[in-house]
Design goal:
Helix content is 89%, strand content 0%. By secondary structure, the protein is mainly α.
Length: 75
């Protein structure tokens, strides 16, 4: 692996880590809003869907980080 490729992977890792921070902050805000929403409301249902999407994005983000780390460690 060339130095340029390693730098590109490092930039991608940094971007994924920043994305993870943003997703976690969004998840905290959604959780706080859910605490104030009445159970059974349409808005709560929509927030639950958003929360599920953020959780899935965090899961995929972790996989991407792990895969990129594996690539850099293998070389």
């Amino acid at each position: 692996m060339t130095a340029a490729e390693k730098r590109r992977i490092q930039r991608a890792l940094n971007a994924l880590r920043k994305q993870r921070v943003v997703l976690k902050e969004s998840l905290k805000r959604i959780e706080a809003l859910l605490c104030r929403m009445p159970i059974g409301s349409r808005e709560r249902f929509e927030l639950l869907a958003v929360r599920d999407s953020i959780i899935e994005a965090l899961r995929l983000n972790a996989i991407a980080i792990r895969n990129l780390k594996d690539v850099t460690c293998a070389c």
